[in-house]
Write a structure and sequence with these properties.
heterodimer, A: 357 residues, alpha/beta, Rossmann fold, 7-stranded mixed sheet, 11 strands, globular, B: 333 residues, 8-stranded mixed sheet, 11 helices
Chain lengths: 357, 333
């Protein structure tokens, strides 16, 4: 994912001064009304539809949803990595602190930002690393693309990063090719690369989905530790509610391109409001649900609708157990739930059952 | 013959004894020093009728190889596979024919295990014809019956795999496995590729079918929560060997082997209020080509001492039905 564009340095950026403590509560990324369309056979579909959220400094925000809900497309839109020419941001803004609206930047400008102020790690590190170059070379390339440093200094920094992400014998691993590393090691290299320029934000798209559970535990712990040490805000995108519960402070639940619920992680798990969130949480096999012998799991009927054939009104109406007339007539807004009317909480839900009107 | 881990709830349907599957890997100049990759390295267990035995472990531990050997898609290097008393480990292809209908398999990715150029109907009729199920009309009747059994509709008969969603494709894979009324089905990661809301539909289907048809499952998965939900007993594999096997509740509540403890502690609970008490293991799983000497887990085990790498521990019954392969088990519990 690292660009190898012309060396561009950003004068307004002083690396190495971010710390988790000093910037609590500051908004580093403000996404408003982000809408992304994809051109497909027979028309256009809205993969991301009016998505808004704030990301605070030093926070981990989770985005959870099933395949095709738009969670990865949201991340790619922010990073300016939409598949071209089929994907375009049609409206909305992605305002990054000290940089401005990323959606308006030119390719060259975005190249300078990507990997420096915002970076991203992906599910399968083997496909994101170049197999014909050593990991050290690729790390140095990423560093030198953004910082005017000598090869020797870049090498020093790269080894330091490999050490930081817990790779034993970093001087030796520097000269390894990606295939010589295990899956967990490769994901560590990706994280090292993503954090090499001390970005404000790291987007992690299913970072542990391809890994075994014991390796997943290592990587999640590493991400938490690095977040605390560097103050980088993290957006973690996953289908796994276990990962969300472990990592995130706030959560967005997405369904068919829209945000259906936003809440603090404790609120979401203790008292999910949207029927989709409720169904999703109940569908997970867990010892908590197992009283006595084998029990059937809760299921959500039907399948996720195709984005070019969404049901009328609420997008979840054809699968929702609590559906009523109004749901088929118009789509509910994402609004503060009627239950939280009195509080000044930031909780939002897109459901007529919890809507004031 | 030492006794082997089984449940005492009935006679064994499938008894696996001392199963080994070694692959030869090229080594040295033009492969002059071939080395053995011991994917399955001495496995014993049995499955009784109507039981689900879970098989868990991380990538490369040999669980899929073991599954393929149980179905005899692969031939074991050594050991016995006693299916209702007959050893099928060494049978030739023609001798195996009559056992094929009894033991079936469901794969992880239904898109790559279904023929994209065949309609669902033809795909399901094929095994019926191969095993002379009956005339054309009765075969077609059976296919419609199968479609209904797995929750698909009769009108799906003439459709191709690409016209279905992931969950529906897995239903087709299940229908195909059920076509000849098998007794044992090996489920190799059957829900790993599915979304949560679809995963629960397929798990329910597998459990309903088991009740209805009296099936036995060897349920291979890396998802420990799914296994806990589905299975009566669970075997934990590490580098080609079973390190612990016990009834599900017993295993999850009284985890004995250090590897099982670490594995189960790494399972993420979908509840932020639960403070994870993770045991973080160092490093990754060693290569099965040159596995550590003695106890395979000794290089990552927090309790390991010198003698752990000196000799291989045996699988020992610690509690009724609860078998563990660890020589320090008395010190660490």
């Amino acid at each position: 994912m690292m660009s190898t564009g012309p060396q561009m340095t950003r004068s307004d950026q002083t690396p190495g001064t971010s710390a988790a403590a000093k910037n609590a509560g500051r908004t580093v990324l403000q996404v408003s009304g982000l809408t992304t369309e994809l051109r497909v056979e027979g028309g256009r579909i809205r993969a991301v539809d009016d998505v808004s959220f704030d990301l605070l400094a030093g926070e981990t925000l989770g985005i959870v949803g099933e395949s095709g809900c738009g969670k990865s497309m949201t991340a790619l839109s922010i990073m300016g990595l939409l598949p071209r020419p089929i994907g375009t941001i049609t409206s909305g803004s992605v305002v990054l602190e000290d940089v401005g609206d990323l959606a308006l930047l030119s390719d060259a400008q975005m190249k300078a930002v990507r990997g420096d102020v915002v970076s991203m790690i992906f599910q399968e590190p083997m496909t994101s690393l170049n197999p014909v170059f050593t990991v050290g070379f690729q790390l140095c390339e990423a560093i030198q693309a953004h910082r005017p440093v000598s090869r020797q200094a870049a090498r020093q920094k790269a080894i330091e990063m490999l050490d930081l992400v817990g790779i034993p014998l970093p001087e030796l691993r520097f000269d390894n090719y990606p295939h010589q590393l295990s899956g967990g090691m490769r994901q560590r290299v990706m994280i090292a690369m993503a954090l090499a320029c001390q970005p404000k934000i790291m987007l992690a798209d299913e970072p542990t989905t391809a890994l075994d559970v014991t390796i997943q535990a290592q990587i999640l712990k590493l991400m938490d530790r690095l977040k605390n040490e560097t103050g980088t805000s993290i957006v973690i995108i996953t289908h796994d509610l276990g990962v969300i519960a472990r990592m995130a402070q706030r959560v967005l639940v997405m369904y068919a391109g829209v945000v259906v619920e936003e809440a603090k992680v404790h609120e979401l798990f203790a008292r999910p409001l949207h029927p989709y969130t409720v169904g999703l949480l109940k569908s997970i096999p867990s010892a908590r649900h197992r009283s006595g012998p084998k029990k059937r799991l809760h299921t959500i009927r039907g399948v996720v609708p195709s984005l070019n054939a969404l049901p009328r009104g609420c997008r979840y109406s054809d699968r929702c157990p609590d559906v009523h007339d109004r749901c088929h007539q118009s789509e509910p807004p994402l609004a503060r739930p009627v239950e939280d009317e009195a509080s000044q909480g930031e909780r939002r839900v897109r459901c007529w059952l919890h809507c004031k009107q | 013959m030492p006794s082997i881990p089984s449940s005492d709830a009935g006679p064994a349907l499938m008894e696996v004894r001392g199963l080994r599957r070694h692959f030869s890997v090229d080594g040295g100049w033009f492969g002059q020093n071939p080395r053995a990759l011991k994917a399955v390295d001495g496995v014993d267990f049995s499955i009784i009728k109507g039981e689900s035995l879970g098989l868990v472990g991380e990538s490369g531990c040999g669980k899929s190889t073991l599954g393929r050997n149980v179905v005899r898609l692969d031939t074991p290097t050594e050991g016995a596979l006693l299916f209702e008393g007959t050893d099928i480990a060494t049978l030739s292809a023609s001798e195996l024919r009559r056992f094929r209908r009894e033991i079936q398999i469901i794969f992880q990715n239904p898109m790559s295990s279904l023929n994209p150029r065949m309609t669902v109907g033809n795909m399901l009729i094929e095994p019926l014809r191969l095993h002379s199920y009956g005339d054309r009309a009765s075969c077609q009747r059976r296919v419609h019956e199968l479609l209904e059994l797995v929750g698909l509709k009769s009108e799906h008969y003439n459709r191709y795999p690409h016209e279905f969603s992931g969950g529906q494709r897995q239903r087709i894979g299940i229908a195909r496995a059920l076509a000849l009324n098998p007794k044992l089905i090996v489920c190799d990661e059957p829900v790993s590729a599915l979304d949560v809301s679809i995963q629960s539909q397929i798990i329910n289907l597998l459990m309903d079918l088991q009740d209805e048809l009296g099936l036995s499952y060897l349920f291979i998965s890396h998802d420990l929560s799914v296994v806990e939900h589905m299975c009566d007993r669970v075997a934990v594999m590490y580098l080609g060997r079973i390190v612990e096997i016990a009834p599900t509740h017993e295993l999850y509540s009284r985890r004995l082997h250090p590897y099982t403890r670490a594995l189960l502690s790494a399972v993420l609970v979908p509840d932020p209020a639960v403070q994870a008490d993770e045991i973080i293991l160092e490093g990754g799983v060693p290569s099965p080509i040159d596995p550590p000497k003695g106890c395979h887990f000794s290089t990552r085990c927090p309790f390991a001492k010198d003698d752990c790498s000196a000799s291989t521990p045996e699988l020992v019954e610690q509690h009724p039905g609860h078998w563990v392969r660890c020589m320090r088990i008395d010190e660490i519990t």
